[in-house]
Amino acid sequence: DAGVIQSPRHEVTEMGQEVTLRCKPISGHDYLFWYRQTMMRGLELLIYFNNNVPIDDSGMPEDRFSAKMPNASFSTLKIQPSEPRDSAVYFCASSSLGREAFFGQGTRLTVV
Amino acid sequence: DAKTTQPPSMDCAEGRAANLPCNHSTISGNEYVYWYRQIHSQGPQYIIHGLKNNETNEMASLIITEDRKSSTLILPHATLRDTAVYYCIVPNNAGNMLTFGGGTRLMVKP
To answer: Which residues of chain B have a pLDDT value below 50?
Structure first.
């Protein structure tokens, strides 16, 4: 398996634009996590899914953020409209129950 | 979630053992201790986990105290490539939600 795959690796967008980050988890994993990392706040859990169902989205900062998992092999994190303070590295991770999580290489988002 | 406490930074000489401590005094009986590390600009990487007994794998050893209120991650022969932020985590009761604290920034020096 190629591991957790995120795209794009880098994204630069203008304030107010819609941004969509994508994640392909490891095949067979039933948990998927979205994290955001900044210097100020460290690694923050935004939302996680179990069997494609959102379980806890309490970390999603505001209504501008939304996440979906239409099937077991794909998830998106969307920001609409984007703001400069959304600039961060966004990580996706997947795991099986009781096992270690595997992280993707992240998407570095810059909103100008 | 059981809260963990780690020193913010540590130094280690190349080739020596790196011993990274973690306090998790509120851990409950069925909660595991996980260790991850994050090398600059990369996603966090799983290292090792344990419940009660000491564990060892190709990357590291994990020593958990008998009362389970603290643990130590040991890198037996640290290399420059081990320079990273090391996170000690106790997942939630469901066993899957990972909450990261500040971690320990380990600097391995030549």
So the answer is: none
Contact B81, B74 (CB under 8 A): no
Paired with B71 in beta bridges are: B22, B64
The 10s digit of each residue's pLDDT in A61-103 is: 889 999 999 999 999 999 999 999 999 999 999 998 778 899 9
What is the predicted pLDDT for the residue at B98? Answer: 83
Give Cα A78 to chain centroid, integer Å. 9
Residues in A whose CB is inside 8 Å of some CB of B read 4, 31, 33, 35, 42-45, 48, 50, 56, 91, 93, 95, 97-98, 100-106
Confidence of residue A106 (pLDDT cuts 50, 70, 90): very high
| Chain A interface disruption, residue of B90, B96, B104, B105, most A CBs within 10 A | B96
Decide: helix, strand or coil at residue A10.
strand
Instruction: Give how far the C-alpha of residue B79 lies from the chain's centroid of Cα atoms, to the nearest Å.
Output: 17
Residue with structure tokens 């998106």? A76
Quick one: which of A10, A27, A14 has its CA closest to A94? A27
Q: What integer pLDDT is reported at residue A99 of this predicted model?
A: 83
Q: A100 to chain B: which residues are within 8 Å by CB?
A: 34, 46, 49
Beta carbons of A106 and B49 less than 8 Å apart: no
Q: Which residue bears the tokens 């967008």?
A: A13
3-state secondary structure of A83: coil
A10: amino acid identity, one letter: H
Name the helix (H) or strand (E) containing B3.
none
